[in-house]
Input
Amino acid sequence: METTAAGEQIPAELQAYRHTIDNLDAALIHILAERFRCTQQVGILKAHEGLPASDPEREARQIARLQELAQEAGLDPVFAEKFLKFIVAEVIRHHEEIAASQSQPS
Output
């Protein structure tokens, strides 16, 4: 049985939950990395086509869609919205950087 730094024993059930959480955290990181690779390509395409970094209508549709999915999955829809808004803000920042770098003379 594993022990804490204070020498207390950690129950096997808690260890199992933590192992599952660690695996899920790793999966989330890999999924987010793949999502950002895809949005990077979107940013390049938008910059090439002269499209704005942000698309508020799509963002609103995505928020509504993810809130519904969250509700169905038993996840707090407000949390899902906050999470998506955080990700979208980062994506927009990347798109703005891409557009700025492509508009500079070579």
